[in-house]
């Protein structure tokens, strides 16, 4: 099976559940979609998350449904053409996780200090 074909093959519910548990533990399978609720500290942080997800989705040319509220964003993914969850959904979900929850201080070997450990500056609430 070619990579292009396999990226469009809908995975079984069992495959989706197993992969979520192993690869994306903060995502859930619900009503045929994979979903992640990202909690924020308020409106500005919510807009940063929305813009980040929007940028990634456009670069991937795979667009999630978003629910946007004052202090959270819900991201839902499905591949409509396949009528189910595919590799495309997992790839974009992983990229969203990597970018939105990136911790500069832990990843930069001291070059970047990251967001100060002060409630005034926190904007993403980690699970």
Describe the protein.
With 127 residues, the protein is of the alpha+beta class. It has a single domain (3-101, 120-125), classed as Gyrase A, domain 2. The protein contains five helices and five strands; from the N terminus they run ααββαββααβ. The protein has helices spanning 3-8, 13-23, 43-60, 87-100, 104-107; strands at 28-30, 33-40, 65-69, 72-77, 124-125. Helix 3 crosses helix 4. The model has no long low-confidence stretch (mean pLDDT 92).
CATH uppermost class: Alpha Beta
Question: What string gives the helices and strands in order?
Answer: HHEEHEEHHE
Proportion of β residues? Answer: 15-25%
The main sheet comes to:
5 strands, antiparallel
Low-pLDDT stretches: none
CATH superfamily: Transcriptional coactivator/pterin dehydratase
According to CATH, what is the topology?
A: Gyrase A, domain 2
Mean pLDDT: 92
CATH architecture: 2-Layer Sandwich
Distance between the termini: 37 Å
Shape field: globular
How helical, in percent, are the residues?
40-55%
| Rg value | 16 Å
């Amino acid at each position: 099976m070619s990579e292009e074909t396999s990226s469009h093959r809908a995975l079984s519910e069992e495959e989706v559940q197993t992969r979520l548990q192993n690869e994306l533990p903060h995502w859930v399978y619900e009503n045929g979609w994979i979903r992640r609720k990202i909690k924020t500290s308020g409106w500005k942080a919510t807009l940063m998350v929305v813009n980040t997800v929007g940028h990634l989705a456009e670069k991937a040319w795979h667009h999630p449904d978003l629910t946007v509220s004052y202090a959270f964003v819900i991201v839902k993914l499905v591949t409509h053409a396949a009528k189910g969850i595919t590799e495309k959904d997992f790839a974009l979900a992983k990229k969203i996780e990597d970018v939105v929850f990136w911790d500069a201080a832990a990843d930069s070997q001291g070059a970047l200090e990251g967001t100060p450990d002060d409630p005034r500056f926190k904007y993403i609430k980690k699970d």
